[in-house]
Amino acid sequence: MPSIYKSGAFIQQCFAVHPRCLDFKSVHLPDRLVMTCTSCKMHHHLALRSIAARSSALADSPDVSVEPAARAAADLLAECLAAHGTSVTIRAMDVIQDVIGLRCRDCRRLFDLDITAFESHQL
Ligand SMILES: [Zn+2]
Ligand SMILES: [Zn+2]
């Protein structure tokens, strides 16, 4: 049986120490994302409460709605991961606030993921 840790501490550690080792393993939007760390040999399961998307070009504009339809944001992220997943990287992580920020380099789009549960599985 693999060990399971119900904590965000492990993915936080991966992001801090070797962020390039984190890859998207499986995507079940809008509810769930699984990332794999090639360095720690861990799978990090993220349960999602909501996803917000915005254009990074307009990120500073006060006109940008901060509350786009969650469904649309999940679709956008799913499209990015399917079309050019290697361009999607983690830009921020705060496991105390339960927030993970992603960036798509190709679309210049930012995603904010609101996480309800972190779980890390040692392989
Ligand atoms: Zn790691
Ligand atoms: Zn994209």
Give the tags.
2 helices; globular; 20% helix; binds zinc ion; 7 strands; alpha+beta; 46% strand; 123 residues; seven-stranded antiparallel β-sheet
The strand count comes to 7
Gyration radius, to the nearest Å?
14 Å
Q: Helical residue percent?
A: 10-25%
The helix/strand class is alpha+beta
Tell me what portion of residues adopts beta-strand conformation: over 45%
Distance between the termini: 9 Å
Average pLDDT: 90
Bound molecules: zinc ion
What does the overall shape look like? globular
Low-confidence parts: none
Layout: helices, strands, pairs:
Blueprint: E1 4-5, H1 9-17, E2 22-28, E3 32-37, E4 42-55, H2 70-84, E5 88-94, E6 99-104, E7 109-122
Antiparallel strand pairs: 1-7, 2-3, 3-4, 4-7, 5-6, 6-7
The structure holds zinc ion (2 copies).
Q: Could you explain how this protein is built, in words?
A:
The model has no long low-confidence stretch (mean pLDDT 90). This protein has one domain (4-122). Strands 1, 2, 3, 4, 5, 6 and 7 form a seven-stranded antiparallel β-sheet that branches. Strand 3 and strand 4 (42-55) form a beta hairpin. The protein is globular. The protein has two helices and seven strands. The longest helix has 15 residues, at 70-84. The chain has 123 residues and is α+β, with helices and mostly antiparallel strands. The chain starts with a strand and ends with a strand. The structure holds zinc ion (2 copies). The site of one zinc ion has 7 residues, from helix 2. The site of one zinc ion (ZN) has 7 residues, from helix 2.
